């Protein structure tokens, strides 16, 4: 099984060298290529990439951004790479993370057994101590995550995906109109079309968190807003009065945020709590803004798949197999 590793990049000059060094140490005996997809970077990202051609002989570079048009998100970069990839299966990674030793071999081995897989995420190596998980090892370290929304399916971060070509050919491209939750949407669509999502215990990616409060709040806002739009596509109906309740909750959160901000200069504990507050506040702000917009139209094809999945799951629960 020939693998295509797809690495999107937009202004990743500060971190992409770390990822490329890690990729130089990867091995897969059945052959692999690396496709770096540039989304119109204006920094030195691609000059750094060019320095690795001798050490990564199967390196290919693509341009996803068309000058003079709006810049699309990472989902568009992945789609550009997928369309050009030669692999029997595809493995994703990103410019601000670092794949661990043995990652590619573990992903390739898993794709020999499963159609759709995801690597584990480590939240410690690339992040300051005050951003380390306070309990456990963080999301997607020991198990897949599930958001508390219909259709209640597991999902994985796009930077950890591995999928066979057949999955992409059937499920289709990542959704560029939901740039911040395209990976959740793809996880759901693939499962609704019969592909199970498996976490690969031996494949590890060191994940880089947003470090500044402003960046964390912005990321939370983007994800929160897109999550509302994602649920609406699957038929979620916005409850009456939701915008007012969200706004009231945000106003109530402000005094705690101010106190944590002041305390963060004095104690690392408060710095960590403020970072968590900033992300959660951003998420709720994104939900609030999205709840004011015109609802995203539900997609009849997704509704039909989700309803059939619920019917099958309900039948299985009512008639468990004998042990």
Share of helix among residues? 40-55%
Low-pLDDT runs of 5+ residues are: none
What is the arithmetic mean of pLDDT? 90
Overall SS class: alpha/beta
Shape: globular
Return the string of H and E elements.
EHEHEHEEHEEEEHHEHHHH
Query: Order of strands across the biggest sheet?
Result: 3-2-1-4-9-6-10-5
- Rg computed from alpha carbons, rounded to a whole number of angstroms: 20 Å
How far apart are the termini? 36 Å
Per DSSP, the total helix count is 10
β-sheet strand percentage: 15-25%
Number of strands: 10
Please outline the major beta sheet: 8 strands, mixed
SSE map:
Blueprint lengths: L2 E7 L6 H9 L7 E7 L6 H6 L8 E5 L10 H11 L4 E4 L5 E2 L3 H9 L4 E7 L22 E2 L7 E2 L5 E4 H7 L10 H11 L4 E10 L6 H21 L8 H23 L3 H25 L7 H19 L5
Parallel strand pairs: 1-2, 1-4, 2-3, 6-10
Antiparallel strand pairs: 4-9, 5-10, 6-9, 7-8
Give the key terms:
323 residues, alpha/beta, 8-stranded mixed β-sheet, two-stranded antiparallel sheet, 10 helices, globular
Overview of this structure, please?
The chain is α/β, with parallel strands linked by helices. Helix content is 44%, strand content 15%. It is built from 10 helices and 10 strands. The protein has helices at residues 16-24, 45-50, 74-84, 103-111, 165-171, 182-192, 213-233, 242-264, 268-292, 300-318; strands at 3-9, 32-38, 59-63, 89-92, 98-99, 116-122, 145-146, 154-155, 161-164, 197-206. An 8-stranded mixed β-sheet has the order 3-2-1-4-9-6-10-5, with helices on both faces. Strand 1 (3-9), helix 1 (16-24) and strand 2 (32-38) form a beta-alpha-beta unit. The longest helix has 25 residues, at 268-292. The radius of gyration is 20 Å and the shape is globular. The model has no long low-confidence stretch (mean pLDDT 90).
């Amino acid at each position: 099984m020939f693998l295509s590793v797809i690495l999107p990049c937009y202004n990743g000059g500060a971190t992409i060298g770390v990822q490329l060094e890690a990729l130089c140490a990867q091995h897969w005996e059945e052959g692999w290529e690396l496709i770096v997809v540039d989304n119109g970077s204006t920094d030195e990202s691609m000059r750094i990439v060019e320095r690795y051609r001798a050490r990564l002989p199967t390196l290919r570079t693509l341009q996803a951004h068309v000058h003079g048009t709006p810049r699309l998100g990472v989902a568009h970069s992945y789609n550009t790479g997928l369309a050009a990839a030669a692999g029997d299966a595809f493995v994703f990674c990103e410019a601000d993370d670092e794949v661990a030793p043995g990652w590619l071999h573990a992903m390739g081995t898993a794709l020999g057994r499963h159609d759709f897989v995801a690597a584990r995420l480590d939240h410690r190596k690339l992040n300051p101590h005050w951003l380390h998980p306070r309990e456990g090892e963080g999301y997607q370290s020991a198990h897949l995550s599930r958001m508390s929304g219909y259709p209640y399916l597991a999902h994985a971060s796009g930077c950890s995906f591995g999928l066979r070509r057949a999955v992409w050919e059937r499920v289709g491209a990542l959704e560029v109109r939901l740039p911040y939750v395209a990976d959740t949407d793809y996880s759901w669509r693939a499962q609704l079309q019969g592909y199970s999502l498996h976490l690969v215990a031996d494949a590890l990616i060191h994940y880089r968190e947003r470090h500044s409060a402003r960046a964390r709040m912005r990321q939370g806002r983007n994800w929160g807003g897109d999550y509302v739009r994602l649920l609406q596509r699957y038929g979620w109906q916005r409850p009456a009065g939701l915008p007012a309740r969200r706004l009231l909750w945000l106003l109530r959160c402000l005094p705690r945020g101010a106190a944590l901000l002041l305390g963060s200069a004095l104690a690392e504990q408060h710095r960590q709590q403020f970072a968590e507050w900033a992300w959660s506040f951003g998420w709720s702000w994104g939900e609030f803004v999205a709840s004011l917009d015109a609802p995203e139209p539900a997609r009849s094809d997704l509704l039909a798949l989700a309803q059939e999945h619920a019917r099958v799951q309900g039948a299985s629960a009512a008639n468990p197999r004998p042990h």
